[in-house]
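Morning F.,

Quick status update on the modeling queue. The single chain you submitted on Monday has been processed. Sequence for confirmation:
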Amino acid sequence: MRRHPRRGEAGRQVTSDSPSGPSRRGAEIGRRIGVGLMYGLWKPRVLGAWRVPASGPVIFAVNHAHNVDGPMVMGVAPRPTHFLIKQEAFVGPLGTFLEGIGQVKVDRSGTDRTAVTRALGVLAAGGALGIFPEGTRGDGDFASLRAGLAYFALRGGAPIVPVAVLGSTDGRGRLIKKLPPLRSRVDVVFGDPFEAGDGSGGRTRTALDAATVRIQERLTTHLANARRLTGR
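Structure tokens below.
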């Protein structure tokens, strides 16, 4: 069951534009900037965007093989997206920019309660939250999932939409090692939304572990299907 937006003491609906939460307007601006950058530097091909729920809370679970994965999804997703991003990226002008476009800073050294509250606030306001469930950039194969994705899905009452970002894997034309070659095709494949829970509403450690297993199976299957579809 999806949760309704929270209301304050005076009955005011709490939205992601509240002072304590990331800006929804900022995320929309970030999406517009992302569209220009991504289509200017690469050749995105977006598949399955129609599967994304048009409204209500949703979590994009994105594989993470390139540094461009987050900005790419932010630019091509059909809804403004608030990504959980490591605090190390929030330095100088870039940090100010990320805050301005509604992204959520996360301290990965422990449980960042401020980040958790802000992320749950995005979902409570019916927004889209972007998560790299592997926690950091790697092979982008969903092989090692953290429990954070299951926690937000169960607590936020939000369906998960798997997203596969598939860029070139060779080194030809690559100016920066962590980015796909400029003007190369990058496929972004959105999958069918699914619920992480088993329908019981449980939020115990056992329920969280079981949800993580279910999520990994669904994400791995989506990635395999996306690779077959795109030939990547």
